Structures are given as C-alpha cells and as structure tokens.
C-alpha cells in the first residue's frame, strides 16, 4: 500500500493549486486523475483581480501575465463593468486560457515535489480515526491522512462520500467553440442579443477566437456531445451569420444548472472547486472560486497534518468558503435571469444599465465579481480584519518590498509598522517583520481606503486575522491562538 500525507483527486486548477500550497508547507502530496493525460482543452478563459493577487502572493503570476491579455473590464449579465478604478495592482481581467494556467501550475507542483498520477480514478474511499484509504482503479490503495476531491461536478469523491449536491437543473443551453475566423470582427462582440438567445466573439490568442452562444428556450441532455457542425448551425441560427469559422480546437456545451455541496467536509474527506459547487459561467467566476478554495484550505490542512491545527481550524474552511460560493450561485442565477430574451427583460436590462452608471453600484458589483470584497469572520474590531491584506509598498530592512512578496514563504506574517507586539511562543509559526509603509493607505475592500494599522497579523492565504494601532488594542493573543494554536 502506498502512503502519503494528502491525496488530491483531480489535476485541474483547484487540485494543482492545492498541491502547490501543501508542498510549500512541506506536506507530501499525491494528485490522482482519472484521465489518461492532460487534454489541452482551453476551458475557462480568464482570471480576476483577487486570483491574480493570490498567484502573485506565491510568485506565480508573471508567467500568466506574459501569456495573457489584459482587458480593462468585466461584465454582469453582459452589461460592462469598468475595473480600472478598483484599488488593486490588477484592475483588469486577464484573458488567459485554463489550459495555460494548468500548464504553469503543473510545472510548479511537480518542481515542488508533488506526485501526479494519470489513469488513476478514485473508485473507493474508507476512512477511520487515523486516516483514509483511497482505492485507485480498483487495483491499488493509497493511505493518506486526508483526501480532497477536486474532481469536478460529477467527481467520484463527493459521490462516494455521500455528500448531497442539491440545487437547480439547467433551463437553457450554452455552447463554446474555439476556432479560427476567415472574417473576424474588428473588435470584440460581447453579449449581442438576438431572438431566443445571444452570442459573443472574443479573441483570446492571436488568430484564435472564442465563439459563445446561449439559447434560453431549450436545455440539451447533459450527456450530449456536440460537434463543430452542431455549433455552427446553432450559432448561425442565433447570429444570423457565420464569420467564417473553421479549424475548431475545442467545442463544448454548458447550462445554467446550479448545485452546491451540502457540506465541504466529511471526516477526513474534503471537496473543493467544481466538486463543491457548479453554476452558470457568468462573469468568469468559476476557476477563480476553485483556486481561492484551494488557498483557503491548503494552510489549514498543512497545520492539521503536522498535528498543530487548533480546534475548529479545518471546519473554518467550510464556514468561510461556503457563503462565498453561495453568493456566486446567487449572482449567476440573477445574471441568467437578466440575460433572457424578450421585451420585459430588455426593459429590466435598461434600468440595471442605468444603475451601473452610478460609480458606487458599479464598484460594488465589480468588487463582487472580482472577489475583492470577500470578508471572513476572523474576529477583531479593526475595520480591516477579515479582508484581504492590501499589497502595500513597504520598506523592510533598508530594502523596497511589498506585502505579496513577504507572503511567498506560505507562512503567516505579523507586519509591524509603528509597534512590535510580543508574540513569544508563536515565532515558530508567525514571522515578525518590521516595515515602513511607503504608500500611506490602500484599500482592503477594493473600493475604499483603510488607514495603515500599527501592526497587522496576516494569515498565509493573505487575509487579515488581526490588526491594531497600539498596545491598547487587545485581541492579538486570542487571534494567534484561534488561527495557529496555543503558544509553544
């Protein structure tokens, strides 16, 4: 029987990001996938600001920036959202294909020491008080401390564990084709509404275009496998023209089914990414949601493997991430309703578009789509607690740096600006860094400044666990104990 610390089922972006996080913490990881090899299918087409920040926190962003294309906006149900004034280093959508992200994460995970096994479907799960036996292909077993299912909406881990996946069935059909065009449009065509549906044409890579269509009066069978001619016929039916599509690279279909795992943990088994939640791909939130699941779970799972996880730490993965996914399911259902054809929806879209002319409303939706406004219940009275830490420019030991660079160790940090608290007993888990802020204030929420505290305790995932302005601000000991266990 093989042994490892953690088995991850699924070698997509969520599973690979989790593998990278665990290896950064020195945890032994085996990733298994039922496929014979990586497909190279393009799949998701971009990442948002918060995901870019997360990749930057681990030094992974530069290769993706180099291979992607910046788009200064996003959308809500096809209504444009300007991102350029969001308070982040990355106020744009990065158009980069999922296949590229998987390639870069695969390289990083393997270089860090993760083992990736193909042709390795999970066929059985048996857990006890000390670990979990993961049966692979009915022929061999891997013994691990924990198992994480990152194997998609139809994945085996959630099914074998008996976690319910309740929600709503599809009411419409969408299709995607990555093709070359003989007669491409001069610019992107986004969300052009026609008759029973809408269509889009967007260039992701030089010479290659992603064509999308959505038809709202029919839902195809989940098991249907459309080919290129099916796509062409349906696209012409909606768009009333063919821009000369040829040389298809990938064709698929999707729907607006929305399902959410009733829980994210069952003993020593967890689910993340699409294994925990599926939804209509409105606003490009799905891949981002899964990567952020992985980063939330990774450091907590590492602490548990080491035997240093305080009471409730593993359960906080579900309590923090479940509401985030529920909100995404909610807003994608709303976007589907707002995209349906007909004069009543047209009138509603006109009204919503007028609301988006108000900066406050636009920023609120933009911060939600980009996940910059997420706030966890970390405790503490300071207004920045629970939010992502701003990537402030800092001076550390006479050298220019910034917060994201300091997080690349994967450890928690205590940034001390004007006051150095005593954290005796936690130095083995928390790095104390004396800094000088070169930026004054930056935003914690993506759309409004928060004054720089004298000291900030930042979790390994980049969220503020505690902040204070001086010795009179209590709660630091409680925060250290809550997130990192008792003092040594």
TrEMBL record:
Cofactor dependency: FAD
Keyword match Cytoplasm: no
GO MF annotations, alphabetized: monooxygenase activity
Pfam families membership: FAD_binding_3 (PF01494), Rng_hyd_C (PF21274)
Transmembrane segments: none
Protein's UniProt keywords contain Protein biosynthesis: no
InterPro entries per the UniProt record, alphabetical: FAD-bd, FAD/NAD-bd_sf, RIFMO-like
Domain FAD-binding: 4-331
Keyword entries, A-Z: FAD, Flavoprotein, Monooxygenase, Oxidoreductase
PANTHER family per the UniProt record, alphabetical: BINDING MONOOXYGENASE, PUTATIVE (JCVI)-RELATED, TRK SYSTEM POTASSIUM UPTAKE PROTEIN
The name this protein goes by in its record: FAD-dependent monooxygenase
Organism the protein comes from: Nocardia aurea
Taxon lineage: Bacteria, Bacillati, Actinomycetota, Actinomycetes, Mycobacteriales
């Amino acid at each position: 029987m093989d042994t490892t610390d953690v088995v991850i089922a699924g070698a997509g972006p969520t599973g690979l990001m989790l593998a990278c996080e665990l290896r950064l913490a020195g945890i032994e990881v085996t990733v298994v996938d039922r496929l014979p090899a990586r497909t190279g299918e393009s799949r998701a087409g971009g990442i948002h600001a918060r995901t870019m920040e997360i990749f930057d926190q681990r030094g992974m962003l530069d290769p993706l920036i180099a291979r992607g294309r910046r788009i200064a906006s996003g959308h809500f149900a096809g209504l444009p959202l300007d991102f350029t004034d969001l308070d982040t280093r990355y106020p744009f959508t990065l158009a980069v294909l999922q296949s590229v992200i998987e390639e870069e994460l695969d390289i990083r995970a393997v270089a860090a020491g993760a083992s990736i096994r193909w042709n390795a479907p999970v066929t059985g799960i048996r857990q006890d008080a000390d670990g979990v036996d993961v049966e692979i292909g009915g022929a061999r077993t891997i013994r691990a401390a924990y198992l994480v299912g990152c194997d998609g909406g139809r994945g085996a881990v959630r099914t074998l564990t008996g976690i319910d996946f309740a929600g709503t069935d599809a009411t419409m059909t969408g299709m995607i084709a990555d093709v070359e065009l003989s007669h491409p449009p001069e610019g992107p065509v986004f969300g052009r509404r026609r008759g029973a549906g809408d269509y889009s044409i967007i260039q992701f890579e030089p010479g290659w275009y992603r064509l999308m269509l959505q038809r709202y009066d029919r839902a195809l069978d989940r098991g249907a496998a459309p080919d290129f001619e099916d796509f062409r016929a349906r696209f012409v039916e909606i768009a009333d023209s063919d821009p000369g599509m040829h040389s298809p690279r990938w064709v698929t279909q999707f729907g607006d089914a929305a399902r959410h795992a009733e829980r994210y943990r069952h003993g020593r088994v967890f689910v993340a990414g699409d294994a925990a939640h599926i939804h209509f791909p409105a606003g490009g939130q799905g891949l981002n949601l899964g990567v952020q699941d992985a980063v939330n779970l990774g450091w907590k799972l590492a602490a548990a493997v080491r035997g240093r996880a305080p009471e409730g730490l593993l359960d906080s993965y579900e309590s923090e991430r479940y509401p985030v996914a529920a909100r995404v399911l909610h807003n994608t259902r709303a976007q589907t309703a707002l995209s349906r054809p007909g004069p009543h929806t047209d009138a509603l879209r006109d009204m919503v578009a007028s609301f988006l002319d108000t900066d406050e409303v636009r920023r609120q939706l933009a911060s939600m789509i980009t996940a910059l406004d997420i706030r966890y219940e970390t405790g503490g009275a300071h207004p920045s607690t629970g939010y992502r830490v701003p990537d402030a420019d800092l001076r550390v030991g006479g050298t220019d740096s910034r917060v994201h660079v300091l997080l690349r160790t994967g450890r928690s940090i205590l940034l001390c600006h004007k006051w150095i608290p005593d954290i005796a007993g936690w130095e083995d888990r928390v790095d104390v860094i004396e800094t000088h802020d070169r930026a004054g204030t930056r935003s914690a929420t993506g759309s409004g400044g928060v004054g720089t505290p004298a000291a900030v305790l930042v979790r390994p995932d980049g969220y503020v666990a505690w902040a204070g302005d001086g010795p009179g601000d209590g709660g630091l000991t409680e925060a250290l104990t809550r997130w990192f266990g008792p003092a040594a």
